[in-house]
Design goal:
By secondary structure, the chain is an alpha+beta fold. Helices cover 24% and strands 30% of the residues.
């Protein structure tokens, strides 16, 4: 029995920008700085090398062999480095994966490498996200020294790493502490507080990005939550973050996710999408070779 095309388009499962959650108190809130008030810091030079790491994933088709399903997709990861006073794109890595396949699948000029997963469509989609995370970790291992900025939570074992979170699904502060978030001015941060996640001990804080005045924006639009492994030097990184993130904030004229989508990362995302190839061309190849038209 051969694999046959089941669907080229799937409903997206990811969420867009989220408002601050309205329910669920955090457990075991533990501030790492007192008093609980806005903090600022004098400007500091950027460390060199300074890396920006991000990845992308794209579902390309759902295929079936009898009742067995597999998800074909592309994952990409890359980095931009600030060094010698300029930004430079490092060579991205792009791979095609077949989540649920047991062996490689050649479809015309495309080859999908197997990635283990089985069960529901949701499990296959989670497998594609895992493939992306593993590729990001692989790229990160090739970046030596300096400071690494991750678009998302810190899941890497590395010295010198800051993760920044643009959407706010989880409540980390008790309600009585949240008033400070809306009082932050651009270039200010909250005190650091402890976050525990799957055995990790992290220091985290919120900071306010500059928000251009044109148009209406909800108050959470200029907030980033930043985190780093809890250890010696986390307060120095918290202060350094105030010199890093605000100058890199994007502008709504150029990026609808402004200001949280940092300018170097926005450019990296566009390059990764280009390297993954045209969705329309890939769709035609899949349809021609797997019987979809």
């Amino acid at each position: 029995m051969a694999w046959r095309l089941f669907a080229l388009e799937l409903s997206p499962t990811g969420a867009g920008e989220a408002s601050f959650p309205q329910a669920g108190e955090p457990e075991g809130f533990w501030p790492l700085e007192d008093p609980w008030e806005a903090k600022s810091a004098p400007p500091r030079p950027w460390p060199e090398p300074l890396y920006f790491l991000d990845g992308r994933e794209r579902v390309e088709a759902l295929i079936a062999e009898g009742r067995r399903l597999a998800l074909l997709g592309a994952v990409a990861a890359g980095a931009v480095v600030w060094e010698g006073g300029r930004m430079r794109l490092l060579e991205p890595v792009v791979r095609r994966v077949g989540v649920g396949l047991s062996e490689p699948l050649a479809v015309g000029e495309l080859v999908y490498e197997p990635f283990p997963a089985e069960g529901t469509l949701e499990a296959l989609q989670e497998g594609l996200r895992q493939a992306r995370s593993l590729l990001e970790a692989e790229v990160a291992r090739g970046l030596s020294g300096g400071l690494l900025l991750l678009d998302g939570p810190v899941r890497l074992e590395r010295q010198g790493v800051l993760g920044y979170i643009k959407t706010h699904w989880v409540r980390y502060l008790p309600r009585e502490r949240e008033a400070l978030l809306w009082a932050l001015r651009p270039g200010e941060r909250t005190p650091a507080f402890r976050v525990r996640r799957k055995g990790q001990e992290l220091a985290s804080w919120y900071l306010r990005l500059p928000l251009p005045p044109e148009g209406f924006r909800p108050p959470q639009a200029g907030l980033l939550r930043v985190e780093t492994p809890l250890g010696e030097g986390f307060l120095a990184l918290a202060d350094l973050s105030l010199s890093l993130f605000p100058p890199l904030a994007s502008h709504p004229v150029k990026d609808p996710r402004a200001p949280q989508n940092l300018t170097p990362v926005g450019g990296l995302e566009r390059e990764l999408a280009r390297r993954m190839g045209s969705r329309e061309v890939v769709g035609r190849i899949l349809a021609r070779h797997l019987g979809g038209g």
